[in-house]
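just leaving the lab so this will be short. below you get a single protein, a line of residues and a line of whole numbers that encode the local backbone shape. id like you to explain what the token line says about the fold, in plain words if possible. thanks a lot i owe you, the record is right below:

…
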Amino acid sequence: MQTRPADLDAELALFKEARYPSLATGQIPGGVAEYFDTYAEYGCGLKVHFFPERSIGLLSRMEEAHRTWDGATRPIRSWEELGA
């Protein structure tokens, strides 16, 4: 089971103190996330997330797939293909 680190809770508290309403919160693959309504001020929502150290390699592989993608071939890839 994934737990939330104290520093993430502190970060989330900053947005709540700034009066940005939480739109959603929950588990994401390998971590936790919370989405805030910052549309009025910034024109978009904001996602704050925590990924444990073991997920950094997966994120690096996702970034590499993004950088080397030709823009047409196989836009959807499985977690297994990325080594999750």
